[in-house]
């Protein structure tokens, strides 16, 4: 076993040679004429060589320890750029920076050449990436299992203010340098076909599935590098291929071109990530992706387990499978099928093993996001799996009948099958019934899961429903993205806070220190300047860094209420124009968000904000008081520039709708003050930072439910409140869209006549909270104090803590220090 850290064995001269060798031998460029991209690729590849070696060594070392592992199954891993982060994890950032400088280049310029692998939509995928980082940082044995999409989340641009989507070819023509293909791990996956009964030698009646189509699953490993330790864990992403290079029979008949058709079709399976966030579409190809992901991953887990000579009876002692939302639910009947049909287990034994292996994380209560699949479709695509689901259902319903005799309503509600035409399989119910633990992602959310989503299951299976509050990795979301604040913190906080984020609490005693306040605000200003430079270069808009930078960055969704923010901006605009006595500190409102391509209202809201930006930014009467910037193509690398520059963090979802949020945590950690509702993890952020250091507004969950239950009439608010009326009337008129007065009526009509997310009901209190912010910012010392307290008090939201909570309450793993 190795005892020295990577930094200790790092040899600068060797690394330099490796970069040069890759530059010429891998990428065919010469030092004299190489492009920045060529240098980046050569450097990333030299680094990747080290990581891939460490991956193999960690795997071999872990085998000897007999350690239990968690397998994190997620359809999305929004990892962002890897190279800079890996340099920090290996603690060789400054050494490599020197090497690059010796070539006459700048490391940060090289790092800018890496395209984000955007293999996720938003929070759920980013969470999976933070969890992998925190698992390996604490040497908790883990494998991440996902899909190797050819195209990640679409690239967004604006044409006359409207969102346009383009494919995201994240690997580039040269291939992605931070990954390695693993032909040794190839799997085969069947689809369609039929199931038949047969008798084995002992006269047992068994079932056999004969698929009518097979594809090949090829594994790519992305090494996840442990922070200042010797461990490197795999993020294993499956890519779909036809089983053979082409159809040999056809090839021999001379039909060379058509012989390759199957390759084209099979490759489509992992071609593209579905761009929906918190919304299910029910497409066959999506279900095929899900099964492909699960079949490859389950087979790989069993391969590892069996290759060590372990019995399948002991599976749950060595492997836990954590399902990130219901997207990998089909792994449950897949494991049952393999145990029963391939390994000859009887139902009860297979069920026992399976039930102790799976755990499930719920991410949403939104009805449109709760997955259901038609039983007819599953029955055709995966006929054996549908039989198994029906059997799991039958046994569960027996339990329900025993517990609540004669209660037909309970049977109807808990059934895995939603009756009707067509019959639909409720994937969340299947997960709850088949898992040993089910968790929500923030305290409030987990309470609502128990109380509103699964109250009967909570009675039927006491202690199964748990909470684990989400977190973010402090390595990427402070140390790497905010070097200025990191170095200030390191001057004042003892110990490696990037390893133990609770250490930041010692900064609380400096919150009232005038000198420290000045330093803290100078860092904030520097980060605002960095963002302003980016905006100036890329968008041609000049920002005043004395203004309050007010940031809302997240997927575009009605429940996240970017339109509440917009209405407030419009009301400020009108006040500045019409009320000579109105005073406000200059404010820059910054947005970034992608809308799902099929979500018309979300796209209209993007257009409306872009039109408002154009109108306000070009109105000479407004001068520098108010600016609106919508930064295109929101992604991890953009978040890394915006978050350190935020003064105000907008977390304004309708109470009860945002399960946790993690953008809220990132910004608080970087010294932004939150304006937010009592929703998701905002509730716990408030607990940590104190009520005086956060701007809470709006209805709480109970009021939201009551308001909606009692018949909500937004039109009354519209007619009663002239500020709201004037702002909405701007959407009806043509101030924002000259020549097209109806272009934004969809948003206005939705708010006046329906407003399902209570934008109008919360508007007045939201505006009040913003006025509080304006007042608070004028006292710079007081503001600095509040910002410092925020950064110092959110250690709880490190994903290291999330991982320890999962370990203590669900996974029961041991850290293995290599
Ligand atoms: C953190 C993050 C999210 C999640 O943001 P929320 O505000 O919690 O919705 C989405 N996308 C990216 C790129 C992120 O970094």
UniProtKB/TrEMBL annotation:
GO CC list: cytoplasm
Modified residues (N6-(pyridoxal phosphate)lysine): 666
InterPro entries noted in UniProt: Glycg_phsphrylas (IPR011833), Glyco_trans_35 (IPR000811), Pyridoxal_P_attach_site (IPR035090)
EC numbers: 2.4.1.1
GO molecular function: glycogen phosphorylase activity; pyridoxal phosphate binding
Transferase recorded as keyword: yes
Reaction equation(s) it catalyzes: [(1->4)-alpha-D-glucosyl](n) + phosphate = [(1->4)-alpha-D-glucosyl](n-1) + alpha-D-glucose 1-phosphate
Family: Belongs to the glycogen phosphorylase family.
PANTHER family associated with the record: GLYCOGEN PHOSPHORYLASE (PTHR11468), MALTODEXTRIN PHOSPHORYLASE (PTHR11468:SF25)
Record-given protein name: Alpha-1,4 glucan phosphorylase
Organism this protein belongs to: Enterovibrio coralii
Taxonomic lineage: Bacteria, Pseudomonadati, Pseudomonadota, Gammaproteobacteria, Vibrionales
């Amino acid at each position: 076993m190795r005892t020295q850290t990577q930094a200790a064995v790092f040899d600068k001269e060797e690394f330099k040679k490796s970069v040069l060798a890759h530059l010429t031998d891998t990428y065919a460029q010469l030092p004299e004429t190489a492009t920045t991209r060529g240098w980046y690729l050569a450097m990333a590849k030299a680094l990747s060589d080290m990581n891939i070696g460490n991956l193999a060594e960690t795997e071999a070392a872990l085998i000897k320890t007999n350690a239990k592992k968690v397998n994190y199954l997620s359809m999305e891993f929004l990892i962002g750029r890897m190279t800079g982060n890996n340099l920090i994890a290996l603690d060789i950032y400054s050494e490599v920076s020197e090497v690059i400088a010796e070539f006459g280049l700048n490391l940060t310029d090289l790092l800018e050449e890496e395209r984000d692998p955007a293999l996720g939509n938003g929070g759920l995928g980013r969470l999976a990436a933070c969890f992998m980082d925190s698992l390996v940082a604490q040497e908790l044995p883990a494998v991440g299992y996902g899909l190797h999409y050819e195209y990640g989340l679409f690239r967004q641009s604006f044409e006359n203010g409207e969102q346009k989507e383009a494919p995201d070819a994240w690997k580039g023509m040269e291939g992605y340098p931070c990954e390695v293909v693993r032909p040794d791990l190839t799997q085969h996956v069947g689809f369609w076909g039929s199931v038949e009964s047969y008798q084995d030698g002992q006269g047992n009646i068994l079932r056999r599935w004969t698929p009518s189509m097979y594809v090949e699953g090829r594994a790519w490993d992305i090494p996840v590098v442990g922070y200042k330790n010797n461990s490197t864990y795999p993020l294993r992403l499956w890519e779909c291929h036809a089983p053979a290079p082409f159809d040999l029979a056809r090839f021999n008949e001379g039909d060379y071109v058509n012989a390759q058709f199957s390759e084209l079709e099979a490759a489509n399976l992992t071609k593209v990530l579905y761009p929906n966030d918190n919304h299910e579409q029910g497409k066959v190809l999506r279900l095929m992706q899900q099964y492909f992901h699960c079949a490859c991953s389950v087979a790989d887990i069993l391969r590892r387990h069996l290759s060590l000579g372990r019995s399948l009876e002991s599976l749950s002692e060595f492997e836990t499978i954590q399902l990130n939302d219901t997207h990998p639910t089909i792994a449950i009947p897949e494991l049952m099928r393999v145990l029963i049909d391939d390994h000859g287990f009887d139902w009860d034994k297979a069920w026992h093993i399976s039930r102790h292996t799976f755990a499930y994380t719920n991410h949403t209560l939104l009805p449109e996001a709760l997955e259901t699949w038609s039983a007819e479709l599953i029955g055709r695509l995966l006929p054996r799996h549908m039989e198994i689901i029906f059997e799991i259902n039958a046994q569960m319903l027996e339990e329900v009948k025993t517990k609540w005799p004669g209660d037909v309503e309970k049977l109807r509600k808990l059934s895995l099958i939603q009756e009707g035409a067509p019959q639909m399989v409720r994937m969340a119910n299947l997960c709850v019934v088949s898992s040993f633990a089910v968790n929500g992602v923030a305290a409030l959310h987990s309470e609502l899961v128990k109380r509103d989503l699964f109250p009967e299951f909570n009675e039927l299976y006491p202690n199964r429903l748990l909470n684990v509050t989400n977190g973010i990795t402090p390595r990427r979301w402070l140390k790497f993205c905010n070097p200025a604040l990191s170095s200030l913190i390191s001057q004042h906080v003892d110990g490696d806070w990037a390893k133990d984020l609770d250490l930041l609490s010692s900064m609380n005693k400096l919150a009232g220190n005038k000198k420290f306040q000045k330093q803290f605000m100078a860092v904030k200003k520097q980060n605002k300047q960095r963002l302003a430079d980016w905006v100036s270069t890329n968008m041609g808009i000049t920002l005043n860094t004395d203004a309050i930078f007010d940031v809302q960055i997240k997927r575009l969704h009605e429940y996240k209420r970017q339109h509440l923010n917009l209405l407030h901006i419009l009301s400020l605009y009108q006040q500045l124009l019409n009320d000579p006595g109105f005073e406000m500190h200059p404010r820059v409102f910054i947005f970034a968000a992608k809308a799902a391509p099929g979500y018309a209202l979300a796209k209209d809201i993007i257009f409306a904000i872009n039109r408002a930006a154009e109108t306000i930014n070009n109105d000479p009467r407004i001068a520098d008081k108010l600016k609106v910037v919508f930064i295109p193509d929101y992604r991890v690398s953009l978040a890394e520039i915006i978050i350190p520059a935020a003064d105000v963090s907008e977390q304004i979802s309708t109470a009860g709708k945002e399960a946790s949020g993690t953008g809220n945590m990132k910004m608080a950690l970087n010294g932004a003050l939150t304006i937010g509702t009592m929703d998701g993890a905002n509730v716990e952020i408030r607990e940590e930072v104190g009520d005086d250091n956060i701007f809470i507004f709006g209805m709480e969950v109970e009021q939201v439910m009551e308001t909606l239950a009692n018949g909500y009439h937004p039109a009354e608010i519209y007619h009663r409140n002239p500020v709201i009326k004037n702002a909405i009337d701007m959407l009806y008129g043509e101030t924002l869209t000259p020549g097209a007065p109806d272009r934004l009526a969809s948003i206005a009509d939705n708010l006046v006549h329906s407003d399902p997310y209570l934008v109008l009901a919360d508007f007045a209190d939201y505006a009040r909270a913003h006025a509080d912010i304006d007042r608070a910012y004028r006292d710079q010392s007081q503001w600095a104090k509040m910002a410092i307290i925020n950064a110092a008090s959110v250690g709880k939201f490190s994903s290291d803590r999330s991982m320890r909570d999962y370990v203590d309450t669900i996974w029961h793993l041991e850290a293995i220090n290599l």
